[in-house]
Amino acid sequence: xxxxxxxxxxxxxVVGQGVLHTWHHRGYTVNGYDVYEPTxxxxxxxxxxxxxxxxxxxxxxDMVFICIATPQSExxxxxxxxxMRDGLHTIGPWLARRHAAGHYPMIVMRSTMLPRLSESExxxxxxxxxxxxxxxxxxxxxxxxxxxxxxxxxxxxxxWQVVIGALDERTGQTLVQMMGEILDEQQRHKxxxxxxxxxxxxxxxxxxxxxxxxxxxxxxxxLWLKDLGIDGQQAIDLAMRMCEGSLNRWYGTAxxxxxxGKCLPKDVAAVLAMAHEQAVAxxxxxxxxxxxxxxxxxxxxxxxxxxVKGGFRRMSAEMLRGQAVQAYxxxxxxxxxxxxxxxxAEAPAAANPASAPAAEHSGNGHADQAVNGHAEHSHNGHSAxxxxxxxxxxxxxxxxxxPSQP
Length: 406
Ligand SMILES: NC(=O)c1ccc[n+]([C@@H]2O[C@H](COP(=O)([O-])OP(=O)(O)OC[C@H]3O[C@@H](n4cnc5c(N)ncnc54)[C@H](O)[C@@H]3O)[C@@H](O)[C@H]2O)c1
Hints:
Blueprint: E1 6-10, H1 14-25, E2 29-34, H2 37-45, E3 49-52, E4 63-66, H3 82-100, E5 106-109, H4 117-130, E6 139-142, H5 152-157, E7 162-166, H6 169-180, H7 185-191, E8 192-195, H8 197-227, H9 232-242, H10 249-252, H11 263-278, H12 283-300, H13 317-336, H14 338-351, H15 367-385
Parallel strand pairs: 1-2, 1-4, 2-3, 4-5, 5-6, 7-8
Antiparallel strand pairs: 6-7
């Protein structure tokens, strides 16, 4: 059942426009707000309600999605929050006004938050500027945004994992109901997760750093194999079909104990030794071993459990085959879809007319964008220009061994 909530979107750049489009087309009354006049004019011309932030105090929405720019500081790469603070300064008095009029306004943060940023900075500022108490007088949730800059509207409309970090039950449940409208019953049960705020915040940055890490990991493998005259992409594609890593938690994403058994420590060490002989650096694989060495020490001190004896449990063959066939079919479609590749290559310049206010910082620079841009790049780029990883001193490695290393 559709709720009759009125919505607002503050910050109508890439993410905000995705949110505005999506809820507008789902039949909601939704009003955008921004500080950048050309964006407001363009959205109005396209038939959306959009006003300057100076008029936000008169907003009559029940729920406000905040999608304000949080660019990267050029000084130290940290998240730059001044635009956000500026927006919260305007939103606070609005909260006070809505509360005084008998409402329970809800804030849903869609801008990327670092873990605990909502609790340490955003909510205190909202409380300070409104004189209210979060969770008592107004609601707050963080809903991570997993969209690509080049297909923001489509991704937002077709969200496939809904993570809701809710401070208060009412905001959490309202979002569950709203998101539930686009999912069938089984999906509602399996794809919507209501979790503590900080868990939702952490999940978002893990997605981006994970994507960044695997892209770099496979670039590293590709350059190493290129040095051996091997088609790295073909090997990686095959490896991915054999890997349970991203499907089976026990192989790929379990946390709390080192990897062990015979093959993982042995093969990591063997590849590192071989690459060292080739004078090819594999810094990420070195780091993989270093992290595991640390985990092994923690396990020896009984601070974490020891590696699982006898290996991890596999997923069923049926499940793995099914996933592999689906992934194969889908991958074929993606690689032959030239149109989508071209769109991705061309889109960023035109996609973000609203980014001008952030110009003095390093812009958006999101990992999401890097993922899109880079995915195609990594296939074509390094074989064309033949970049190599830094050369290391040849000879046997003198890497700190650990009890787990053969
Ligand atoms: N672009 C992506 O692919 C993507 C994906 C996921 C998450 N995010 C995150 O979402 C947030 C927004 O990113 P974006 O790409 O939409 O940025 P953007 O630069 O495209 O848009 C941000 C908008 O905020 C507006 N703004 C700035 N200060 C404001 C204020 N005080 N009040 C109202 N509006 C204000 C700007 O004018 C601009 O229109 C960031 O935290 C970003 O990290 C972005």
